[in-house]
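Entry 0007
Protein: VWCE protein
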Amino acid sequence: RGLSREPGARWAEPGCRSCTCQGGRVLCDAVSCSIPCSHPLPAPAGGCCPTCAGCLHEGVARAEGDVFSPSDGNCTVCVCLAGNVSCLSPECPPGSCPSPSPSDCCSCHPAKCSFRGRTYAHGARFSLDGDGCTTCVCQGGEVECSFAPCPTLDCPQHQRHLRPGQCCSSCRDPPAPTGCFLDDNGVEFPVGQLWSPGDPCELCICQADGSVSCRRTECLETCPYPIRIPGQCCPDCSAGCAYMGRVFSNNETFPSELDPCLSCICLVR
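Output (structure tokens):
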């Protein structure tokens, strides 16, 4: 910067940087600040490091030795010493005060509660007769009790019961189903019953939980002229042949209805 510096010389540069001349070179680093106090004041104009010559507390600058009260009050007194803020609060004696004056720094300690031969501190919670169904609380020398709220039950009244040691009723487990109801007519099948609901290819069973499980039968055996038996799911290819509305047994011969010169035979393969 147009100036000559001696070897080992140290000086300050703008922007809070400290420079030194070493071996013909200029080495610069940011100024390192050591702050030995808890509430230092911001660096003064032209300075880099905060100062402990006063205190900055809640955004307000305090002079060395200044005595003040914090914004929340409550009779707490603070003092600024070498950049540190020390605060002291008054010690209030235990006990109750019915109506403390506004100038009194000590807050009112609510009275204890005497209830059924026992004494409870303010704010204490306890159960009535130890049953846990009634909760009581001591508030300013008075005891207030309330019943424990019970949940809303979604079962009918005849399925509710109160277990020993419980405050609220609960629902009984529903009885195990004895069968399956199928329609509004009250038709019921016992557990394990198999039946066809009108389609011979569909088979249903009544399960233990009262539900109905159904499954369709897939017919795998096929032939050109199967015999269809009423009430039976799959056509029968082993009993004979069905041809032009008539049923013929195995190896039976018969004239063709399309050509009287032709003779047909039923072959089960």
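Curator remark: The chain has no helices and 24 strands. Residues 187-216 form one domain.
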